[in-house]
Amino acid sequence: MATRKLNLHIENTRRKNSIFHTLPLHWDAACRRHRALARHIGKISFGWDGDILEAALADADLVIGLPADRSRLAERAPRLKWIHSTSAGIDGVLPLDWLPRGTVFTNNSGAHGHKAEQYMTMAYHLLNSRMAAIMANQHARRWEALFSPSISGKTVVVVGLGDLGEAAARAAKKIGLKVIGVRRSAQNNRHADRVVTYRQLDKVLPQADFVVLAVPLTAETRGLMSAARMDLLKPSASIINIARGPVIDQAALEKRLRGGRLAGAMLDVVEPEPLPADATLWTAPNLIITPHVSCDDGEHYIDISLDLWFENLALFLAGKKLKRRIDPKLGY
Amino acid sequence: MATRKLNLHIENTRRKNSIFHTLPLHWDAACRRHRALARHIGKISFGWDGDILEAALADADLVIGLPADRSRLAERAPRLKWIHSTSAGIDGVLPLDWLPRGTVFTNNSGAHGHKAEQYMTMAYHLLNSRMAAIMANQHARRWEALFSPSISGKTVVVVGLGDLGEAAARAAKKIGLKVIGVRRSAQNNRHADRVVTYRQLDKVLPQADFVVLAVPLTAETRGLMSAARMDLLKPSASIINIARGPVIDQAALEKRLRGGRLAGAMLDVVEPEPLPADATLWTAPNLIITPHVSCDDGEHYIDISLDLWFENLALFLAGKKLKRRIDPKLGY
Fold first, then answer.
1. Which of the 8 DSSP states describes residue A262?
2. CATH number for the domain that contains residue B146
């Protein structure tokens, strides 16, 4: 264990929703949950949009939250050993050329699974129950008995098996779906009936009643759900995107929904965000848009995040490899 | 076992959605699933809206489906021993003064639990996730990050613990809710953390995050969820009705939703049905209306129903008491 106390700077931004702000009250509560570990923290500072950033960086060992200005970090923060993103998606700060050599970068993967599982449970049922059409009927004051089959036994293809993909798979198994996972390596996963690699993606898509996109946005995953791949799906299939908007060809999706060539879709992420009022996507039939809220606990996001951070602090103090480390080459 | 073969008449009505029509194809498939039992059926007839009813009743032992004209049944159907409703709700044929003495009357309770559980899983999440507001925003092309807390640990009060109430309780337990069941007798139920009687209803309502109405409509349950009872709820609570419209004071509910005195509601049943286009209820905020489709499997309703009927046929042939018998006095 390190004996010298570590200085921590927490950088917040008002551009983000308040559920993502790490306040002294969150920190104090987390310290009460992790007393022994918290003793290793010396000075702690809370900054907003860079207001006290330079002074804090000068002697910070640890930083939570990514400063908007990440230039020359090695010079500005000579003691910086570990910087942590309170988001899981870090596509906004790629490439990682700003990350000093020897500084560990972690993300907040793991903070989203619990809520994502709940969202996914809802999403499968919403799509299976034709709720987009039923709620459009409500808006039009139209009573039309749209019945739906049982969801049991349907098949979901979950693309990506990280924190979010595992949540999607877990939700699916609990409601009786068959789960085919797609990831870089075809190692088994306890929440999937079968796992295949990306090379086999096009072979499993025709089996899907639901496709879930749960990959990080990287150069490789941009446009992954292309028009050609959508055309491999059954017309009765639906697509759910909880990853990032650019993972799917949004225009091609809209066209297929309008043409009845896909049964439905649920998008928690779109391109761009916020979606402008004049975007035609808003009115695509059998589409449900949620405003990027699927995976964030609106009440305890920061509490959950700090618990994960303290778990890593224990590893850090023990000189062990941290969890949720970003590989600068892979970008996730 | 009876040796004489039994004559069966199946009465359909075109007024109902086609998913509720028992066709020869369903019957033949069910006979293949229940070969030994099916051998006891002699003559079988399929009638539509009374077209062959009189001739069929003249020598029918068993009837599936309720004829519109139920007058003088004892005379018209002198051999009738058992009549079965393909619905679970039989409030439309109360009082049961038309039922000949000695004729057993069963309903279709048990055919709805599987789908009802799926609907209820969705309903809890929809209400917790503020989806009515999110979908209203979509309609208005408005991006507003409405976050929501985790659903785990919230409390649901399930009023009625029959087929539907049990499904609501089962769904709730699977997603981590605390379940308080309300029924006539306070006997334990494996899907509820606690069961109380109707006398204690007003005491448990203030604990509810969700209230589920799952009672049959009888003289006793009409208006059960009154304005006064709604005012016992927390303003953050939501109400789900999968019973019958008149179980809740619909005008009082609408008023409370418009005034923000309740967080939301989901109604699969309303009064009247179909809800007329000029009903103001359609536009109440944070309300989701589904067109009485919550509990009926749109693909296999009749298959499931016939399986339950054959289960009872085995009891009938063995001279045993049938399941799902309606008590003419209680009306359910």
1. S
2. 3.40.50.720
